[in-house]
Amino acid sequence: MFGPTNWVHKNISPHTLRHSFATHLIEGGADLRAVQEMLGHVSITTTEIYTHLDRAYLQSVITQFHPRA
Asked: What is the Cα 53 distance to its own chain's centre?
């Protein structure tokens, strides 16, 4: 299915995969509650902390949706 794995030059932990999964879903427009359910978090606060949104993405959202941007 996939080619050789010699292109991966660092160790990737399960935490890194979960973090990336959640971040990509949210950046792609997924509902935070849906991501919470997928990750199995009881509290939405945990999901908010767990996900990481880069500054460039946040700036683009502000520019796109804020009426005075």
From this structure: 7
Check if the beta carbon of residue 26 is closer than 8 Å to that of residue 53: yes
Looking up tokens 């502000």, which residue turns up? 62
What percentage of the chain carries pLDDT values higher than 70?
A: 81
Residue 19 in contact with residue 8, Cβ under 8 Å? no
Contact 69, 62 (CB under 8 A): yes
**Does the CA dihedral 28-33-34-40 come out positive or negative?**
positive
Residue type, 57: Y
Instruction: Flag whether the pTM goes above 0.70.
Output: no
